[in-house]
Amino acid sequence: MKELNLTKSKVLKISKKKLDVLFFLLFLLFYISASAQQKGNLKEQLNKELKQKSSAFFYSGNENYINGKKVSLDTALFSSTNDTLFLYFNKALAEMPFRENSLSAVSDSIKQVLPDSLKEIPLKIWANQLLLEELIPNYYRYEIPVDEGRLTSTNRKRRNVVHEIRPFLISEGLDGANIALWNSHGWYYETSRDRWEWQRARLFTNLEDISPSSFIIPFIIPMLENAGANVFNARERDWQINEVVVDNDRSTGKSKFRKPRKRSDEEKGFAFSELIKGAKNPFQEGTAIQFESRKKENVATYIPDFLAAGKYGVYVSYAKGDGAVTYRVTHSGGVTDFLVDQRMGYGTWIYLDKFYFNEGKDKRAAKVELIAPEGEGKIFSADAVRFGGGMGNIVRNGRAGGLSRFFEGARYNLQYSGAPDTLVWNLHNGEDDYKDDYMSRGEWVDWLMGAPFGPTKNRMTQGLGIPIDLAFAFHTDAGILPDNKIVGTLGIYSTDRDTSVFPDGQSKYASRDLTDLIQTQIVSDINSVYKCNWTRRGMWNAQYSEAYRPQVPTMLLELLSHQNLEDVKYVLNPQFRFDVSRAIYKGMLRFISAQNGLDYVVQPLPVDHFAASFTNESTVKLSWKPVADELEPTAAPEKYLVYKRVGDNGFDNGTLVNETEITLSNIEPGKIYGFRVTAVNAGGESFPSETVAVGIAQNSKGEVLIVNGFDRIDGPAIFETDSLAGVWRFLDHGVAYGYDMSTTGDQYDFERKSVWLDDDSPGFGASYADLETAIFRGNTFDFSMIHGKSLLANGYSFVSSSDEAVEEGLTNLNDYKLVDLLYGEEKQTFLPGNDSVPYYEIYTEKMINALSAYVENGGNIFMSGAYVGAEIPKEKKRKEQIENLLGSKWRTDHAVQNGQFYSVNSNRNFTGEFNTDYVLEQYPVESPDGIEAFNKNGETIFRYTENGISAGVFYENKYKSVVLGFPFESVKGQKNRDILMRDILEMLNE
């Protein structure tokens, strides 16, 4: 590398960015006085050493830091006057993370290669025109003064657009914070091919256009909102394909809008249209009603008409108003209130929450009321309310995209959401949707804020007045590494575009702080949980559109490589998605708290050991245990929320309790109740527990305990040889958390040497498209209700318990004559990485001991699951113990494909079918077991129609048992499940 040519003008340019004035003068003096031989020799010697070492030579952290860029020394200046060595390194050094305690390590590393005469002198180290200590984020500064120029400006005070009325206070979370984010690319119209297509290739059953959605939608957004933040997504966040709009201009179906009284005027507002052509802005096509506050509440009412029951995201829109109004949502679970500040967020869709609504139109059970506060002299606004994400309706060259809006790129959702075209999403006159899509995301952030942070073409655009705290772009980087190496996590930010400060004077190096905090948290948490030496790549200061366009601290995350199989092992695992999402949430929490000088608390983890038990004929006791977070000591629960559901309706708003149990009375006979619990603290609310179900039968024949042993979430099977490798979904497609939204289809190209030609023929890892956009069920932790319905239909009362509560003796099996063991797709699982601890075992020692003691006391067992035979341990003593206990033994896995089975007993004459399809209602069963009787005391009672293999076994000795090689809850049709349960109950109770 050539010697850095520091002319006077070049030095001046550097000094304007970061050089202290005094240091600038010394720097110039030393540069002039130092001999060329001193500079040249020292620089040559240091760079020679650097070439022989990795770029992590300077980095003292424990992470596996790898960056493709090599660290090199541009300039070395020695001052004999001050006995100080000034070293100016290239940009690669600035891409490493530094802390106060690592500065001395860097200095020591350099001194190792210095001549003896220079080893004891002080060093001043620069990288990318910053002193090394200036690269330390404010959050990690203790002795070094905080850079106040990076802190949040007082012009962006935290305040909520939407505030959900909760029964607890979030005092040390993200209440008042506003976060803008987006989940990578999406479905878009490609002009050159005249077709709608993805922006990336289908690889390893996944796709970058939708894979980040499996982090953002089920995990990151709920975590942030549970901490009190308002989250804005550039893409549609609700995958519900049905859309219901209630509006003063035009509503869908038989939906009805009731206007408020004392209306004053109209402004531009939303108008519904099935298809939107050209650059039409739907928020400029209709009207919004303005109305005055009164001595009594002034109310506008929106009554939707639903074509199908289901969960729907609820969005509201309005023109600018004078303050906060209440939006009261009546849904199947009850009534939930939101305060919405109409001084912000006007002229677009503002998301409230997602609720379960029943089919049809019922003003008593499904509506939204806009309630203006009492008092006179203020003006408020009523525009449209929308339920559900709906189908994409932006027309390109005569046709819409054909997919739900959830899968489309940001450019189309922003058009539907009222963003101005020439400033935000139509930057190429309708000729290049690809560029418009990635450029629009940052411009949308600026539009949300408005002057002086407005879009690039007009910073003084009024915008929506929302004080955004940070922006976050989620991607999975491309790249392949040999020898089973992990590509790992890259962070990108930008400081050099146009100016080094945001419009309010905040230093853009706040973006580097944000990037460092999130990247550090991700790598640290992955390594702690998965013990895999996860790769930490650099922090690039680069002019990527998504990094430099937002006028707020912004991070572009490249979490891993969707093209690299070693990374794919992780990205397809739902537990990994949860852990990474929690790390991202924690990084954002720490950044926003540090920016505002506030303390923080991390929201708790979900509770476990959840169980229900009857205390009398109409009272049920619920109990649970908190879960400690080994990675975060602040995440301790303080209180708990107990949510209740009746029948097929949604959950209510919860009851706050201080203890780890609650007794609930007035359980009505003939109804099924569902309960779930969350833990809360000053930082927010945890994710929910599994759901336990309870039902009391009229003239009950007895009480049954349902034990929920189906806890598993897991990625699909992956195989590897020297020449072939990939994802074997046919062997095991894994179990999604809640719902799978990111599978494209099975992989068909397993040749490691297959080369990429284009995105339609991507070579190694290429996958089908038959499942993409098919959102299907995984583990919703709510299957005890399905078993309970059939028990109740047959006259039996029931309660349910987690398997952990049974194993720990918290649930007493001896209180019940029959135990229904629900094991779904539970089987022993190992996390990717080097963690050797097995998860989700069926036949734990504690469970077998509990069941053995139970049957000795005369208890009977009904057990079902896809792996109840295959999971029986091979070790002889344990194998015989379990087979003797259940009266069945394993014969084969993947017993059938079509799911049909029949009763061997001609008197029962039952035929049924369990689900093997990818649908919302039931998870698909890809690997049912063939099981046979263990000895002469058992007999086959069901066989698979496809091949006659035994599908179920009845066993009778001192007690009775029925074991099915497929999950009971996967049987199609409520009527069939009821009949099947009747036959099983008769066998066990004869």
Overall helicity: 10-25%
As a whole number of angstroms, the C-alpha radius of gyration is 31 Å
By DSSP, the count of extended strands is 51
Q: What would CATH call the architecture of the largest domain?
A: 3-Layer(aba) Sandwich
Query: CATH superfamily of the largest domain, please?
Result: Class I glutamine amidotransferase (GATase) domain
**Largest sheet entry:** 9 strands, mixed
Q: Given the C-alpha coordinates, what overall shape results?
A: globular
Helix/strand class: alpha+beta
State the low-pLDDT regions, or none. 1-39
- Identify the strand order in the major beta sheet: 42-37-43-44-51-50-49-46-47
Number of domain modules: 4
C-alpha end-to-end distance: 89 Å
Q: What's the overall average pLDDT, rounded?
A: 92
Number of helices: 18
Describe the structure.
The protein is α+β, with helices and mostly antiparallel strands and 990 residues long. It folds into four domains: 8-136, no CATH class; 161-221 and 433-595, 3-Layer(aba) Sandwich (Aminopeptidase), CATH 3.40.630.40; 242-388, Galactose-binding domain-like (Jelly Rolls, Sandwich); 697-712 and 779-989, Class I glutamine amidotransferase (GATase) domain (Rossmann fold, 3-Layer(aba) Sandwich). The protein is 21% helix and 26% strand. It contains 18 helices and 51 strands. A nine-stranded mixed β-sheet has the order 42-37-43-44-51-50-49-46-47. A hairpin with an 8-residue loop joins strand 31 (639-646) and strand 32. Helix 7 (410-416) crosses helix 9 (433-449) and helix 14 (784-793) crosses helix 18. The longest helix is centred in the middle third of the chain and has 22 residues, at 509-530. The chain is globular, with a radius of gyration of 31 Å. The N and C termini lie far apart (89 Å). 53% of the residues are buried. Mean pLDDT is 92; it is low at 1-39. Residues 606-699 form the Fibronectin type-III domain. It comes from Draconibacterium halophilum.
